Amino acid sequence: MAATTPIAPARRKQVLRVLFISLLLDLISFTFILPLFPKLLEFYRNLEIEKSGTVLSRILYGLNAYKNSFSKPINDRYDIVLLGGAMGSLFSLCQAIASPVIGTLSDRYGRRTALLWSMMGNIASVALWCAATDFRTFLASRIVGGLSEGNVQLALAIATDISSDEERGKTMAMVGACFSIAFTFGPALGAALAQITTVAANPFATAAGVSLVLIVTETVYLYYALPETHPAQQPHTNSNAKPDQPVAADKRERTNSHTLLNLTHFSFILFFSGMEFSLPFMTYDLFAYGSKHSGRLLGYIGLIASLLQGVVVRRMHPLRVVQLGVLSCAAAFFLLAQLETERGLYAAATLLAVTSSTVVTGLNSLSSFEAGSAERGEKPGNHRSFGQFGRALGPLVFCTIYWWAGRGVAYAIGGAGMVGVAGLVFGGLKPPKGLQISAAKSKTAAGAVVASA
């Protein structure tokens, strides 16, 4: 692979600091709403239950028709869960549509410009949530948010711009660590803010307002602190070069095709997101878990994933990271299929924490190695789009199997599907040229994961 222009260490450190702070602000704001979904959707349902012809009434009618088609009755308690799943699928579908466009625009106009415009969409989305006194407005906020959310993929593009091949894995692990930290603390903060009512017509306006403050703060910070990192947008050092002359893209010798990487990402997220969405059903059925116990379980997964990101994953080769994660996920699926005790549940949760901290981070890193300097927005954007399509379909497909055939069959099928993903990873993916796997480091890192688990 042709080397790109090296970045000065001081400038790289500056950009990484800006990325870390801005991503934390963004993801903490994003995770505020996650624990609020059940109560939030219940509020809108109770508000509009007597009204006919509303958007919410039509959605609930369709979901109830879907729920009643199963031979195994689904408790009415899950109406809100199914509605939340539908909202999550809609958000992911919007991201799947927007991600390639945002990535391509960042290649053409620069990362900083694309990111600031994306932030404008995020501000509009959260502002709509603040004003959402009816479900239609809340739905609009989720659609706007899904279509404008480009922060993560642009952060990955920026991280690729400023990192050498050897530094790439550590930088991607830093982005993954932001996710783990935010998902550990953001939901708890959102739940606490939801207890403070400042607007009677929208009981969740306090959480939405704080989220808006974080997003606006992030936008102002990015405007003043983030430099442009796209090579084509950098000033030319050659005084004879014309200002509008494009910088030649580096020609990269591909190791893994984008088709294979995108298929692997889609397949993994398809099964993994379905399992994620089904966990509240399963833990309620087996252990009568409520939101408090579910929050504790998710917090445990987030904490373990954060530790792994900071201590282990950043030291591993990206391919080994993906291999470890898919094997852990397959084992978790088969364990969940036979689950009988809470101890077994937390053992599976530990395996899922390994998966959460590894697979997507590793695949993003591998995808970035195959993108030239002129396509570091487009190719990762396409890669993310495939994952979001998987996230849009996974809950629907997996929960359909869960309620038609039962927990054991559903998780066994999920495990078999993850074995198939492992086949793609071990049989198809290869280490990028110029970044060979160090056997000694790989064994050390694998040993650390086993010890932590």
TrEMBL record:
UniProt topology in membrane: Multi-pass membrane protein
A molecular function (GO) term: transmembrane transporter activity
Sequence ranges assigned to domain Major facilitator superfamily (MFS) profile in this UniProt record: 15-432
Record keywords, A-Z: Membrane, Transmembrane, Transmembrane helix, Transport
Highest rank taxon of the organism: Eukaryota
GO cellular component entries: membrane
Entry keyword annotation includes Transport: yes
InterPro entries named among the record's database cross-references: MFS, MFS_dom, MFS_trans_sf, Sugar_transporter_CS
Region (Disordered): 232-253
Subcellular location, principal: membrane
Transmembrane portions of the chain: 15-37, 80-102, 114-132, 173-198, 204-226, 260-277, 297-314, 321-339, 345-366, 386-405, 411-429
SUPFAM superfamilies linked to this entry: MFS general substrate transporter
Residue stretches of biased makeup (Polar residues): 232-242
Record's subcellular location: Membrane
PANTHER family cross-referenced by the UniProt entry: MAJOR FACILITATOR SUPERFAMILY DOMAIN-CONTAINING PROTEIN 10
Record's protein name: Major facilitator superfamily (MFS) profile domain-containing protein
